Amino acid sequence: MRLFLDANVLFTAAYSPEGRARALFDLADGGHCTLCTSAFALEEARRNLALKAPAKLPGLERIIPTLTIVPEPSPKKVTWAQGLPLPMKDAPIMAAAVVCAANILVTGDRQDFGHLFGQNIEGVRVLSPREALGEVLKGIL
Hints:
With 141 residues, the protein is an alpha/beta fold.
């Protein structure tokens, strides 16, 4: 199973080594899923950690080797994602998840992605970290 992680999931995984977001990294390390993100999402997570919790930046650096960094989507695909509708700051996330053929986009951003939760958008389901963790665990059990 291929999961695309939004910046807020990367932030949370770096911030809280005991949480659900970090559990996805443990499952990926065990070969149970593949975790992807984009340079755009990674830079947003890095920037937010630097502003809000700079002491947690080493945690982000430790989890980066587990990630597959996928290419950025084309401007045309980002414009498509804006039509879902998504704000300009989030459209590149959805577009990258679709372009890299992720099974799941994992995000905790209910404000901007809430209307897409549980939906399948061009083959990508939008789920919370809790729901994504459940899906990966279902595949193991």
